[in-house]
Write a structure and sequence with these properties.
With 274 residues, the chain is of the alpha/beta class. The chain folds into 2 domains: 207 residues, Rossmann fold (3-Layer(aba) Sandwich), CATH 3.40.50; 53 residues, no CATH class. Helices cover 41% and strands 19% of the residues. The chain has an 8-stranded mixed β-sheet with strand order 1-2-4-3-5-6-7-8, sandwiched between helices.
């Protein structure tokens, strides 16, 4: 049977939210749920594709739209503008991405009619990457987990696990620190949490690239902290992998490592959602 997908809206403790949900239909009995947590590009074609892959494996998969406000995406962060921002950023040095001054210099090279919309999108996108923005994202994800666990007919009463990428990878680990019912967290090249490790009550699995030192160099200390607190943390470092090696729309995509990581992820999910 084919996978079917749709956008839904729902309410939670922190407001109205929007999410992309995929499942093999019909869902005759509740199934385990996998939360698929986005990169900074939003719930775009790649994240939607990954969500459908988990649905094809027998889960109800849901990707909450972390950029939506009251259930709707702001114009500056719509799919077309984020796709244009992704193309722009991949054409400039990565070192310029997170520096407003360096981004401005690169923006100066754009035609005038493109410059201001691109500036608006980049400022909105990167303006969320701060403690306040991450807290809002974490609230949306917590509301999504609660909705899927307790109110969605397709998943009610079933385990909820998460798989996140880059920013979403970090948020997948954060969810483990705040949800005592969470079944398991998978982290693809996301920064590990610095606080709340003692509250983690589920297994955590991580995948990192040896050519992504800003993230990967943080992992041994996190592994030690997890061990100190008696927590379960397995991880794989692919020595020649760069950041975002799983994303097949990125120039850093590595097919063999992505294939291996996906197989390991499915095995992990099978274990934690039984």
């Amino acid at each position: 049977m084919p996978v079917q997908a749709e956008w839904i809206t729902f309410t939670g403790a922190h407001g109205t939210h929007r999410a992309y949900v995929a499942s093999i239909e019909p869902v005759a009995a509740p199934r385990p749920c996998v939360l698929v947590l986005q990169e900074i590009w939003g719930v775009e074609a790649h994240i939607q594709d990954v969500t459908r892959r988990f649905a094809a494996a027998g889960y109800v998969a849901v990707a909450p739209d972390l950029f939506a406000v009251d259930g709707a995406r702001p114009e500056a962060l719509d799919e077309k503008r984020l796709a244009a921002a992704k193309k722009f950023l991949h054409a400039i040095p990565h070192s310029s991405w997170f520096s407003p001054e360096a981004r401005e210099k690169e923006l100066d090279a754009l035609p005038a009619d493109r410059r201001e919309p691109m500036r608006e999108t980049l400022n909105a996108q990167f303006g969320m990457l701060n403690p306040e923005g991450h807290a809002r994202f974490a609230d949306i994800i917590a509301d999504t987990a609660d909705y899927m666990r307790n109110r969605c007919d397709k998943t009610r009463g079933m385990p909820v696990a998460s798989v996140g990428f880059c920013m979403g990878g970090a948020l997948s680990a954060v969810l483990a620190t705040r949800d005592p019912l969470h079944a398991g967290s998978v982290v693809f090249y996301g920064r590990p949490p610095q606080q709340g490790i003692e509250r983690i009550a589920c297994p955590v699995l991580g995948f990192f690239g040896g050519e992504d030192p800003n993230i990967t160099n943080l992992i041994p200390a996190f592994a030690e902290a997890m061990k100190l607190h008696g927590k379960t943390f397995e991880y794989v470092v692919y020595p020649d992998a760069r950041h975002a090696f799983f994303n097949d729309t990125n120039p850093t995509y590595h097919a063999a490592h992505a294939r291996d990581a996906f197989a390991r992820t499915l095995d992990f999910l099978l274990r934690v959602t039984k």
